[in-house]
Amino acid sequence: MEKPLYTVTSTPHIHSTDTIDKTMRYVLLALVPATIAGVVFFGLRALMIILISIAAAIIFEVLFQKTAKRPVTVSDGSAAVTGLLLGLVLPPAVPLWFPIVGAFVAIIVVKQLFGGLGQNFLNPALAARAVLMAAYALPMTAGFFEPQGLYNWTDIDVVASPTPLAIIGSEGFYPAAADFVAAFVGNISGSIGETSVIALLIGAAFLFYKKVISWHIPICFIASAGVFVFIFNPNMLALYHLITGGLMLGAFFMATDYPTSPMTPMGKVVFGIGCGILTGIIRLFGGFPEGVAYAILLMNLTVPLIDRYVRPRVLGTKRRGA
Amino acid sequence: MRIAKMKRGIHPLDNKNTASQKIRYFFPKNGADMVYPMVQHLGAPCKPIVAVGDMVDVGQKIADNDAYMSSPIHSTVSGIVTDYRMTITPSGRMCNAIVIKNDGKYRDHPDCNHGVDFTNMPREKILAYIRESGLVGLGGAGFPSHVKLDPPADKTIDTIFINAAECEPYLTNDHRVLLEEPTRILKGMEVILHLFPEAKAILAIEDNKLDAIKLLTELNTNPRITVMPMKTCYPQGAEKQIINACLGREVPSGGFPMDVGCIVINVDTTISLHRAFFRGRPLMRKIVTIAGGAVNNPGNYKIRLGMSYREVIEAAGGLNSRAYKIVMGGPMMGVAHYTLDVPVIKTSSALLFFTEEESRVSDERNCFRCGKCVDHCPMGLLPLDLNKYVLANKIELFKKYNGMDCIECACCSYTCPAKRHLSQSISTVRRELLAAR
Questions:
Q1: B56-69 pLDDT, tens digit each
Q2: Residue A158's pLDDT is what?
Q3: What is the rounded distance in angstroms from the CA atom of residue B23 to the CA atom of residue B180?
Q4: Domains, chain B
Q5: A16: in domain
Q6: Do A314 and B402 make contact, defined as CB atoms within 8 angstroms?
């Protein structure tokens, strides 16, 4: 009888069916409702920005990996996620070449130069937004308009209309004028993917169901931002703050980005609370009406520190100080 | 009834399809070579006490060592000693082995089949009898039972765990034993309780074996024995996990169960105690789960020690053409082998034949810090960091962040979406450091 040699490996001999590709596909799927809402409210121009952003992110990743003679890994979907998120955080009236510059910053500078997937210390899409904000402040702050409907190709010369947070920043909060329903549905001025709270919540529920994200960061983020605003404005403003601006998009899809958030549950709580408080500080006391992006970027920088000090207790070792 | 639950851990697909089939039994072929490696336990290897050409009987002691930390080996067939040569063992090591040609007569040795009444025996005599019967921990490590049941005088033992968690996927041998030999388990436990008059016993069973929990609860009349259901979770059968789940106690880092007043014993070991004391039979058989996608007749088989796995699998219906990997032990912690010419020894627990789909190894990708390994590590370690330290050869950091506390359960590698070889790298360094001690 012939004696075959069998395969020998170290343990374990079975593996879960989880993969990076699957995780990225889930995130892309979870962003579909918000993407559709953005296109419905801000028209085909918004769709163009999103598509250019995704395409640019994928092309830059391929170009870099080919040039650096590394294996091309765009099929894992992470570049597409970054491109989509970048498109969703841009104002709908920015020039169509903006997402290309943004994708260059996100993929080449922030992601690939630091070692590619998982090695970046800033959220690529938000870092790109911050760079665009610094370089082209006017279109990035005035590129907003009221929802015009799907078939409108609204151009930058349309009269811009400020976002609700910008109005609160300059004129104060009038509860009678604030339309909570419009803000919840997304029928307000804002970045392409951030306005529709209901669409974002549907996507977030999917990510919870698939266990891609845990409650720690988003809930702590949103709750601490709400509490912070409420302390200084004990009225309906706190609630309005939660459903306007980039808070929902940031809390569920940006702050939960794996490489740039802590790994342990306790660390995630610390991170989420930090994001929430920084958002509140910037929104209420800072020079910008919106602070989610900067809050997350600042907290990204604290992640190595959080991961160093907030660790689970190893079974059989003493509690700290015990 | 309280249901115990360990911290973290994973829930792999259990694939315990063989749980409904009765244990089957077969004899080795007449004229077959039975191979008895000198290392079937933790501790000093045995030395042969028979010579080539000797005739031996079933149950006759054929190898022993004067060292305390050792356990004698008995022949499981009658026949003639034909050789003393090197063989590969299920743990993957090479060692010397006695080879006996089975004459098919199964002539019992005159010392066998005399049970003893342990209730009148002094403690030392009981422990000596356990040693003479060749009993070792049958969960996989093979720790000599007479050593485990004789803790240092300064350790007070108040709880004896009978471990029937069987948390590894595919394995159902403990489950079948619980269903088919429950009274022997309870009787075997009495021997242990007799050794520890102050202690109580916990028979811990995971709740994917509800029929076994029900049966044992009904049959148990001893107030010192508690049948404790546990929420199914891997690796709950690990000593530190089972103690923590059931009692909330934590075995200190670098310590042993006896440091928190516990002893953990595999359920099959209690049956062997029963066989030794009530029927006068030394440890000669093992119940082995044979399963996996490449096996024609998966099931549980009662196998005489010394049979080769090749003979076992032939008797169990053979393999189909898709056999890709053979694993001795569970799929999470077992050892892969390249050959079937390995003898069944005291610590063999399962024999799994995987097809390529079941056991494919993917390429390692970048860690994207999802934290799943951290969420599931039952010890509370950060496997991704430990992996990083290993790859950068930062052994001091590896030690500082408790790399040595790893129990090698492989939850991290199982759950990793990037398919990184976390547990592989951690275990390798851990074993190197242990060997250097």
A1: 998 888 888 888 88
A2: 59
A3: 8
A4: 113-279 (3.40.50.11540), 372-436 (no CATH)
A5: no
A6: yes
Bridge-partner residues for B4, per DSSP?
Answer: B230
Enumerate residue ranges in chain B where pLDDT < 50.
none
Contact B325 A9 (CB under 8 A): yes
> What percent of chain B lies above the pLDDT cut of 70?
100
The answer as to whether A271 is a domain residue is yes
Is B230 in the A-facing interface, judged by CB distances under 8 Å? no
Integer-rounded Cα radius of gyration of chain B: 21
Quickly list DSSP for A232-283. Answer: HSTTTHHHHHHHSTTHHHIIIIITT-GGGS-SSHHHHHHHHHHHHHHHHHHH
In B122-221, alpha helices (H): 123-132, 145-148, 173-180, 182-195, 210-219
Q: Give the integer Cα–Cα distance in Å for B215 and A210.
A: 37
pLDDT for residue A1 is more than 50? no
Confidence at residue A157, expressed as pLDDT on a 0 to 100 scale: 56
Interface test with B, best of A1, A16, A24 (most B CBs within 10 A): A16
How many domains does chain A divide into?
A: 1
pTM for this prediction: 0.87
Query: Rounded to whole angstroms, how far apart are CA atoms B190 and B424?
Result: 40
DSSP classification of residue A73: -
pLDDT tens-place string over residues B122-140: 888 889 999 988 889 887 7
Cβ atoms B134, B74 nearer than 8 A: yes
CA distance B354 to chain A (A): 9
**Cα–Cα distance for residue pair B311/B324, rounded to 1 Å:** 18
| Mean pLDDT in residue range A41-55 | 92
Task: Tell me the CB-side half-sphere exposure of residue B167, using CA atoms within 13 A.
Answer: 26
pLDDT at A279 over 80: yes
The CATH code of the domain that includes A161 is: 1.10.3430
Among candidates B336, B335, B326, B267, which has minimal Cα distance to B294? Answer: B326
Tokens 């919106």, residue located: A290
Cβ of B240 within 8 Å of Cβ of A4? The answer is no
Structural domain boundaries enclosing A304: 21-309
- Token readout for A239 is 């609630």
CA A160, A163, A164, A169: dihedral to nearest 10 degrees? -100
Which of B91, B365, B377, B424 would you mutate first to test chain A, the one with the most A CBs within 10 A? B365
- Tokens 């009662």 correspond to B302
Residues of A with CB under 8 A from a CB of B: 3-16, 18-20, 22-23, 73, 76, 78, 115-119, 258-259, 261-265, 311-317
Interfacial B residues in 291-320 facing A (CB < 8 Å): none
* Helix/strand/coil percentages in chain A, nearest 5: 60, 0, 40
